């Protein structure tokens, strides 16, 4: 694609000569207009957004220097080469002051001008490529941070508000956009998943990583903002931002057919590249960020309770999905409260929920009794998966329980298994162990603030799954992993700004940000000031900052 040029000169024959003599095609440029004064040129610039301006200085109505002054005041992105028949140093000095790329005297030496244009445009193209690369790196950093935040939102670990200090710059889109939500799940309790259950933890992690990559690469083909988040072993949540950047409460309708099409494409891609068959559950409306946790739980519950889905790989789920009885909904609530009690190590709460299981079974009428065994099977399966995810089971315990669940047990056997699951979860001194793990994690995180630190890395360091680590971290420190890391980095940056002569760029790298621009955005949202102003306002009188010394 050619760049655009505008020629500005009050002498028409000079403009015509410049159009004809300069080899514009060879330079990758196209003359899109000529103007006789600064006013006409300004209108053309606004209409055409040119890359280059060849501009005379002395013209009627508005001269060249006044035009350049206006261009710079409006921060228009155009490079300028000045042409003048007056050899006056005052003009040259003013042109340089306004950032003009070059200054040439008339009569114009066309060969020399061609070389100057080639140099200026080459510099412009290089600068553009560099800017795109910086934006790509920054976008990736924002994307990674955004996915970490979205995970905390899905798990209901964070209170989301539009003025949250962590929502800075492009990340603020998380709170004011709406999303389509789809949950992709591998039926780990199915007969076909027996091989998967025998894999080592390392093999499962590699498999989960491969699925994530396939989902991400497939989503990138859509060209819309999205996130792929592994919510637990064998389960992934895919969020896609509403087309057109829809705001919360937008009247744009939810296109079930379109969402189902991209969900089917994702299922096909996973089957093609990883050779595994997943199922998908979709929430049938766009949801805001504050509604994501409820939508995720609704779809997850719907997929677990859809015991009669047959071979249908994609289903839509709401809180009142047809086919789900009140008894099934009640059992799901018991399962979630039971898991919550196990995670807290609360034996009293666990016993209360086990009694509620028995009471609920006694209330089930004859019509629903036929669904009792599959309902209990999914109850036990959900508790087992959650306990595995949160590290409450040793590997040998997990293997033993899987083997039992694979057999065709009756209702009494399933209830006994649920009790056995609960006993296994309470067997370890969870509270003391959790406290030790979190203290160890905190020390590790504080030592590694200078580099990109992920939840997965910190969790692995203390031998926990990422999801259980995130839960324990929030319970222990009252904030999410990313909130804690960012707060520690900002506090360290404040100390370095005031107590050391290091530049802002050096400090950014020292606290874990490779991009100064991204560091500045986070710092401003956290403190209300940019780093340089923060430093200058707290330095002793007469002291000079590094940036000021360099200027």
UniProtKB/TrEMBL annotation:
Tagged with keyword Hydrolase: no
Keyword terms, alphabetized: Cytoplasm, DNA-binding, Phosphoprotein, Transcription, Transcription regulation, Two-component regulatory system
Major location (coarse): cytoplasm
A GO MF term: DNA-binding transcription factor activity
GO CC list: cytoplasm
SUPFAM superfamilies: CheY-like, Homeodomain-like
Matching Gene3D superfamilies: 3.40.50.2300, Homeodomain-like (1.10.10.60)
Keyword Transcription regulation: yes
Pfam families: HTH_18, Response_reg
Protein name per Swiss-Prot or TrEMBL: Two component transcriptional regulator, AraC family
Originating species: Paenibacillus curdlanolyticus YK9
Lineage: Bacteria, Bacillati, Bacillota, Bacilli, Bacillales
